[in-house]
């Protein structure tokens, strides 16, 4: 008597690829499962910061769409990452997971949050971060998504955020409140909205360049500036971590230079 074929063992299909437990994604929006492991071939490291109070290292990254996320290196792995200079480079990140971020635990500098997302990349002992020098040649977006100056002026949330933005210099000058050299610069976006940028720390580093951009009414790309809410209106204030790029070479800067002043 022949056995029912349903009980016969199936032949092994040698063409089936082995199961890969890692998900390869190309955007942060695709990272949603805290139980999964992920690989990303191309991300840009905008800034690296060591939180001395928590003894944690943070990489602030953006993907090809300009979306930002933080990667957290825990205290037990800080020593192995601290010597790696990934700032302003493209990297590949493999074998990582994501973790939920309690809103009270966002990475902060002087009580201002670097980035606010529900998730952050949790670097573990299996994670491998390597420089990817080819990403710059593939049209990868060099800058993060930037809020308009109008949105910053109209912001009523009173959230303490470190933000990035770009604007055309309309006017500016030096001030000396309480004997401290300060520079006040008014920036305008493509909608005509204006906001004041107060510089103390950046002025000390690039005073000549600031004076030149005021005179020429050029464009400024600011990173990690505090959005400060006051009764008289919102303004931008720099910190020791603030970065500035003068007349940056990307499309929004070129469009700003065409507006009439």
Main β-sheet, in a few words? 5 strands, mixed, barrel
**CATH secondary-structure class of the largest domain:** Mainly Beta
Instruction: Quickly give the structural class.
Output: mainly beta
Rg (CA only): 23 Å
Q: Could you tell me the mean pLDDT?
A: 85
Distance between the termini: 95 Å
Question: What is the CATH T-level topology of the largest domain?
Answer: OB fold (Dihydrolipoamide Acetyltransferase, E2P)
How is this fold's topology laid out?
Layout: E1 22-25, E2 37-51, E3 56-62, E4 68-73, H1 78-82, E5 90-100, E6 108-109, E7 112-113, E8 119-122, E9 128-131, H2 149-153, E10 162-175, E11 182-188, E12 194-199, H3 201-216, E13 219-230, E14 233-237, E15 243-246, H4 251-256
Parallel strand pairs: 1-2, 4-8, 12-14
Antiparallel strand pairs: 2-3, 2-5, 3-4, 5-8, 5-9, 6-7, 10-11, 10-13, 11-12, 13-14, 13-15
Q: Any overview of this molecule?
A:
The longest helix is centred in the C-terminal third of the chain and has 16 residues, at 201-216. The chain is globular. A hairpin with a 6-residue loop joins strand 10 (162-175) and strand 11. It has two domains: 22-138, Nucleic acid-binding proteins (OB fold (Dihydrolipoamide Acetyltransferase, E2P), Beta Barrel); 149-256, Nucleic acid-binding proteins (OB fold (Dihydrolipoamide Acetyltransferase, E2P), Beta Barrel), CATH 2.40.50. 28% of the residues are buried. The protein has helices spanning 78-82, 149-153, 201-216, 251-256, and strands at residues 22-25, 37-51, 56-62, 68-73, 90-100, 108-109, 112-113, 119-122, 128-131, 162-175, 182-188, 194-199, 219-230, 233-237, 243-246. It is mainly beta. Mean pLDDT is 85; it is low at 1-14. The strands form three sheets. It has a five-stranded mixed barrel with strand order 2-3-4-8-5. It contains four helices and 15 strands.
């Amino acid at each position: 008597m022949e056995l029912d074929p349903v009980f016969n063992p199936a032949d092994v299909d040698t063409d089936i690829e082995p199961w890969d437990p890692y998900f390869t994604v190309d955007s942060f929006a695709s990272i949603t499962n805290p139980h999964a492991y992920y690989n990303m071939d191309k991300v840009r490291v905008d800034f690296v910061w060591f939180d001395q109070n928590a003894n944690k290292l943070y990489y602030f990254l953006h993907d090809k769409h300009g979306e930002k996320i933080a990667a957290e290196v825990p205290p037990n792995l800080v020593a192995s990452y601290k010597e790696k200079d990934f700032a302003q480079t493209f990297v590949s990140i493999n074998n990582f997971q994501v973790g939920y971020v309690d809103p009270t635990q966002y990475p902060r500098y002087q009580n201002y949050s670097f980035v606010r997302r529900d998730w952050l990349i949790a670097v573990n002992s299996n994670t491998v971060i390597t420089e990817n020098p080819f990403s710059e040649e593939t049209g990868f977006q060099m800058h993060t998504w930037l809020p308009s100056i109008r949105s910053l002026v109209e912001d009523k949330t009173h959230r303490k955020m470190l933000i990035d933005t770009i604007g055309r210099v309309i006017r500016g000058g030096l001030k000396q409140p309480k004997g401290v050299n300060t520079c006040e610069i008014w920036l305008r976006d493509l909608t005509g909205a204006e906001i004041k940028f107060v510089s103390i720390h950046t002025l000390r580093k690039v005073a000549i360049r600031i004076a030149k951009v005021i005179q020429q009414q050029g464009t400024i790309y600011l990173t990690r500036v505090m959005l400060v809410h006051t009764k008289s209106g919102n303004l931008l204030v720099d910190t020791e971590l603030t970065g500035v790029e003068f007349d940056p070479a990307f499309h929004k800067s070129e469009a700003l230079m065409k507006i009439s002043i």
